[in-house]
Amino acid sequence: MTAGGRLWTRLGGDRRSLARYRRPAAAAAELEPALRSLSDPELRAHAEAWQRRHRGKVGADCEDLLPEAAALVRETSRRVLGKRLDDVQLMGGLALHDGAMVEMKTGEGKTLALVLPAVLGALAGRGVHVLTANDYLVERDAALTAPLYGALGLSCGTVLEVGDGKRPSAARRAAYAADVTYATPLALGYDLLRDRRANTPERTVQRGRYLALVDEADLLLFDDARKTVHLTRTDGEADPRYAKMTAVVGRLKPGLHYRVDQERKLVTLTDAGTERIEDLLGTSDLDRTADPRLLRILDAVLRAREVFRRGVDYVVVDGAVGVISGYSGRVSLTTDFGDGVTQAIAAKEGLEVPAETRRLCTLHVHWFLRGYQRLGAITGVAAETEAYRRVYGLETVRIPTGRPVLRVDRPVRFYPSDRARTEAVVAETAARRAKGQPVLLGTASIAQSEQMSAALTERGIPHHRLTPENHAEEAAAVARAGSVGAVTVVTRMVGRGVDIQLGGGADGGADAPDPADHDAVVRSGGLYVLAVDAYESRRLELHMRGRAGRRGDPGESAVFLSVTDPSLKPLFPAWQLKVLGLNPDPADSSMAFSRGVERALDIRTGQLAQQLCESVRYDEVMERQSDRLQRQRLVVFDGSGRRDWVARALDSTADQAVAAAKPSGGAKALRRALAQAYPVGLDVESLAALPPEQLSAAVRADVHSAYARREAEVTAPVLRDYERWIPLNLIDNFWADHLRALDDLSAATSLHTLTGADGLAHYQQEAERLFTGLLRRIERRAVFHLFRQEGPE
Which residue ranges does the record assign to the Helicase C-terminal domain (predicted)? Predict the structure, then answer.
């Protein structure tokens, strides 16, 4: 558990922990007059002296520094940025420093709240990473805060996902060498994987994972937790079996041959389905005799057919499959669903099936973040508290708003049909716009955004539909959504990182809205947020509603639902939806209905959190194996234990040959096996004369003698060079093969689970067996090449 988790547990909840953060915030206020009396050069000198005085302090060592640090950051921000941090921002920063999941409502100033823990973390001199959702937010937030860090004597750098991979290593290394580095988890993950495959220290850029401060944390720690970063290469030609399997699956009947779990996006064969597939493929025992890759293709085709929906999960753009982010609504043509699903969708849609990519190495976002020594996170809505605690060891601290929330949340309205709901949305939007009130229409899918946009256009209502292709343009559009009479259609609001100011205004508040426009919007009732679908969880709904009523502004939110929405089926039984659809006046919905929706979404939120906790246990199998292998690679890479690794590989090769030959009991067979690995000095007669208990020791001695002769033959410097790059290349190449084997095992485990066996236990057991074989294979091949390599790499 992190320091924040221990603190929260010890203090017994939000109220008492908030008292802990209020005290240093109040003490900072007492120091403010003295700091204000300093000139700008004096304040900078004071800040630099403070940095020098406390360099090297970490975590709990900074406890007595909190009031002064908070006062310094507040006063420097006021002078450099013209923004004085509120007490709630200081409290949020202090909770982040303690290692908590911090909930601060939209508009309360999370971007600047992150500066205080970054300044405190930078004292350790080991680098602070401030992580956010996309490159636009990286550059925006770094540009905003860099002058503030500079005035405090700290450097600030950025690492981007797009384009930065081509920057020279020296430039990227300089970005990581900064006191504070802004980046996305994906950008840092890619660099970590590249560093792991480097053959020389000069090609590495990172300096370790000390402290991560995560903004937009619910997106990055929950929604994107199982997203993977991987280095790949195209693996040959497109596999024609996707098209063939699509035709085979088309002959199956849902319910009879397979069952669908929409929530988990899983499809499992029934016994009848297994028999039908065996008949169609001409095999007698599907999970024992079929090619493991064919089982994986079958699994992908079933899922593509039943649980991946066009316009919701993916789109087709210029003959290619584009992946829709389930939480931000953004489309990516460079993202792959993985596990062959993208290829299966292409086959389903009649598109050209792309070649699969071979993963050379991979890393889950949740595992990458858990690798930091210290972790703090902040978000506008932290609903999945149990998942944050169980997966990351973070306890949640909720910071109160600086001003009372004036937003009015209207009861949910239920309409009998999609058409009736759309007509009501358009009429409501027109009425609100007529009085100058800005309207934000929130949908749950791109398809629904297009539908609402078409309905508004037909009615002649000017509006802006966000097309999430350019983060900067999208941010500007969201920021203008608070303008007089503006109508904006947006898919989801998670991870946007953008404030909506009444009257409009540039993102980040660089250009404040015109006071007259601001006052006009206030008189109209503030921003009106209208959600037109049931979101997947309570958190997503709160994100949308929370855009209205920021920082004491007036605002209003409502939800219009159609009882025919597929999104309602997991939340309510069919009979209840039918009753809701009979209401003659949807505008007269009672709060009881709204509370019913809230309860259903709260239950769904808990289910999603539980699913994440269960799913990461599968991911951990691969990640732990990767870490174990990486530790071996590191001792070879840096030379600290390279000779010991080679000695163990020689011993292991000898032991493996002896163990393999024992069942046959023949000295000739043993010598043939040994000769495949190294120049054997023992003849058949000598091997046959050895007692069984002495055989391994004798063969070990012989292989070490042969290795000494090898060193004399090629010279020690040459052999030392072989000992570095041969194991490194083998580890990298064999790990890629192992990842494919784990993919095949995962697909086979899905079938294994149908028999009632414990799928996770089966997967763990088989994965460990595969990993043990991987380690032995790397050792054998390393010894083979060390004895036979001629010349440089």
Answer: 421-595
